[in-house]
Amino acid sequence: MMVAEQRLRSVNFWSGVAVLFLTIVGVLVGIYQLNQVLTDERQVPLAKLSVQGELQYTSSEAVRQALTTEPMGSFFTANVNELRRRVEQLPWVQKVSIRKVWPNKLSVYVTEHQPVAIWNGDRLINQHSQVFRANLEQVDAVLPQLFGPEDAVGETWSEFSRVQQMLEVNGFQVRALRLTERFAVNIVLEKGIEIKLGREATLERIKRFIDLFPVIQEHEKSKNNEIDTVDLRYDTGAAVAWRKAKSES
């Protein structure tokens, strides 16, 4: 009797072990199969792509191509940070927001650089004083030319904004501004007049130019000359250089 009971207990024990083992194996197989499905682009693909944003220089097609140059992964495995990086490589793209929308959609919102000036002849400055490289020929607007040290973009744009604001009120437009390594300021007006402002009291010197301009203009007319340069790097007054007026054909 005792032997039979021991055998029965042994059979029950090993049966339980076998059932537990098979259960664990079944769970592991199920997890593996589920993982295979979730990571398989064919099973859970990112089938839809929505591109949004006020796009002027970047096409939706260019965004799509940037995203799909390499496999994107499935809905569950797609790396949003990596996908964002791909789109941010496009020249006009400033910022990208990407999110997954269940069950199979990728929503992309693109913010473009808004060019406000040309920087050192071959790049652009955006509305946040950030320098970026893009095709200058795509810009329809006439942008001011800014020149300055590479580590002084913000200072150059700030100086331009201050000077332009004061001159614009008085009917002048700044076509170009140069900030030297010593932070001296030279500007060129729309009419080709160069104004040397130096390093200090630039706004006071701009005001002096505005006050003196009618007098300078009268001399320009009487002598049949054109204003070339106005040097305001003095405590008072200004030095004016002239060029011969172009003869009318």
Protein model, in words:
The protein has 249 residues and is α/β, with parallel strands linked by helices. It has two domains: 48-112, Ubiquitin-like (UB roll), CATH 3.10.20; 117-244, Rossmann fold (3-Layer(aba) Sandwich), CATH 3.40.50.11690. It is 38% helix and 25% strand. The protein contains five helices and twelve strands. It has helices at residues 2-39, 60-68, 80-88, 153-169, 202-223; strands at residues 48-52, 93-101, 105-112, 117-119, 123-125, 131-132, 145-147, 174-179, 185-189, 194-198, 225-231, 239-244. Strands 6-5-4-7-8-9-10-11-12 form a nine-stranded mixed β-sheet, covered by helices on one side. The chain has a three-stranded mixed β-sheet with strand order 1-3-2, with helices on one face. Helix 4 (153-169) packs across helix 5 (202-223). It is rod-shaped and about 130 Å long. It starts with a helix and ends in a 5-residue tail after the last strand.
Primary descriptors:
alpha/beta; Rossmann fold; 2 domains; 9-stranded mixed beta sheet; 3-stranded mixed beta sheet
Q: How are strands sequenced across the largest beta sheet?
A: 6-5-4-7-8-9-10-11-12
Distance between the termini: 131 Å
Judged by helices, strands and strand pairing, the structural class is alpha/beta
| Overall tally of structural domains | 2
What is the name of the CATH superfamily of the largest domain? Cell division protein FtsQ/DivIB
Please report the number of helical segments: 5
Name of the CATH class of the largest domain: Alpha Beta
Poorly predicted runs are 36-44
What characterizes the major β-sheet?
A: 9 strands, mixed
CATH topology of the largest domain: Rossmann fold
Oligomer: single chain
* Strand/helix succession: HEHHEEEEEEHEEEHEE
